[in-house]
Automatic annotation (TrEMBL):
Protein name, entry field: 8-oxoguanine deaminase
EC numbers: 3.5.4.32
Organism listed in the record: Taklimakanibacter albus
Keywords for this protein: Hydrolase
Length: 445
């Protein structure tokens, strides 16, 4: 039944002043100023109160970390010390913990305007072997598109890595489950709701052999690759000491310098590194909030884009953010990048990173923009809170005045948020169940 989102207050699309027409799961028409829809309309949604964006796309997260936000022993620490503090806590994650953490993160993201997300789950303590299946079930329940990355670690403290023995797996177990997850869950093609990517955690938690074998499996199965890289100077020093090469040389040596790959953080790259990333089509997920919180450094977004690198946005883990709100991350991206690049970085750049750029990181061209033929994934915001009073440019106001909660969110043509609330979710119950799970972890710590 064709639906006309009619006469929005503003919309992030050209020649769509009178809105968009949706039929099924797709946008079928943009309605320009002074025009009417070209085909009969069955339903009209009056959008005069709403600023309409493409659904936001979150390209890096760790959902399980919602259970350890603002952990008293982890605050005010840089990455390595922060990880060493929290790994023993995360080692006690149960299947129920991961399910409720994923449910809460997906709900937070959805309420902030996210319609597609990825998650990087790499902690596999005993009993959590079916983590991918748990996350897929929760994503289907919530109605978001999701790239579930089958993370991995096989280099523990006894081998010179950072994670404890209790959260790592051996290479054969990892690769077998990666192949199983792809076979069972990976959807290919336009409109996919669930996709699987392969995601060894980082140079200091996986062996070079696992990195190479994962790249080979991804090529054979035609899926994407994801990992943390060039996040801190400590990581750079580690790679040079252990592998005798820079992080990017390590990436190339293991077969990851490919258009299948997108990297989280990508802060400490040289000019030559950036040129190589662009030449090979590697994407970078900019994580401004966690980069600032962990004092990791500044991503060179403008140089990366100039070199042809797809730059997306991610909230990163909710123990290093400590939020799952990508609209908030858009504002942080603008402000953090102004410190480096001045006013040449605009609100439109930050919004592009969170939509079209993020979609490119995930290897998708069917989402991230408002255009005929694209998926009907939309985030609608109002400007009725006090923070927006007096705002002249509605699109700029979303970013500059700090929008953080969508009024309406549509995924694949279906409303998933209505009047600011996720459809079919009992927020009070979710908060209580999640808080109880977090309290158990803290009490055991």
């Amino acid at each position: 039944m064709p639906l006309w989102l009619k006469d929005p207050l503003a919309i992030l699309a050209e020649n769509a002043e009178r809105g968009v027409v949706i039929d099924g799961t797709k946008i079928v028409e943009l309605v320009a100023k002074g025009q009417e829809p070209s085909s009969p309309i069955d339903e009209t949604f009056e959008a005069g109160r709403h600023v309409v964006l493409p659904g936001l796309v979150n390209t890096h997260h760790h959902f399980y970390q919602t259970l350890t936000r603002a952990h008293p022993q982890a605050i005010n620490k840089e990455l390595f010390a922060w990880l060493q503090t929290l790994y023993p806590v995360w080692a006690r994650l149960s299947p129920g913990d991961l399910a409720i953490a994923t449910r809460l993160a997906l709900t937070e993201l959805l309420m902030s305007g996210v319609t597609t997300t990825s998650d990087h789950h790499y902690v596999f303590p005993s009993g959590l072997d079916e983590a991918v299946d748990i996350q897929v079930a929760e994503a289907r329940r919530a109605g978001l598109r999701m790239t579930v990355t089958r993370g991995s670690m096989n280099l523990s403290t006894k081998d010179g890595g950072l994670p404890p023995d209790s959260v790592v797996q051996d290479e054969d177990t990892i690769l077998a489950d990666c192949e199983r997850a792809i076979t069972r869950h990976h959807e290919r093609g336009e409109g996919a709701m669930i996709q699987i990517a392969l995601a060894p955690c980082s140079p200091f938690s996986v062996t070079k052999g696992l990195m190479r074998a994962t790249a080979e499996l991804a090529q054979a199965q035609d899926c994407r690759l994801h990992t943390h890289l060039a996040e801190t100077q400590d990581e750079d020093a580690y790679c040079r000491e252990v592998f005798g090469m820079s992080p990017l040389d390590y990436l190339e040596d293991t077969g990851w310098l490919t258009a299948r790959s997108w990297l989280a953080h990508g802060i400490h790259f040289s000019d030559g590194d950036i040129e190589r990333l662009g030449r090979h089509g590697v994407g970078v997920c900019h994580c401004p909030t966690s980069n600032m919180l962990l004092a990791s450094g500044r991503c060179r977004t403008c140089e990366l884009e100039a070199a042809g690198v797809a730059v997306g946005l991610g909230v990163d883990g909710s123990a290093s953010n400590d939020s799952s709100n990508l609209m908030e991350g858009v504002r942080h991206a603008l402000l953090a990048n102004r410190l480096t690049y001045g006013t040449k970085v605009t609100h439109l750049d930050a919004l592009r990173w969170a939509t079209q750029g993020s979609a490119r990181c995930l290897g998708r061209d069917d989402i991230g923009v408002i255009a005929a033929g694209k998926q009907a994934d939309l985030a609608l915001f109002t400007l009725e809170e006090l923070r927006f009073s007096g705002a002249g440019d509605p699109l700029a106001a979303l970013v500059l005045c700090g929008a953080h909660r969508a009024d309406r969110v549509m995924v694949a043509g279906r409303w998933r948020v209505s009047e600011g609330l996720p459809v079919g979710v009992d927020l009070e119950r979710l908060r209580a169940e999640h808080g109880a799970a977090a309290s158990r972890l803290i009490m055991l710590d």
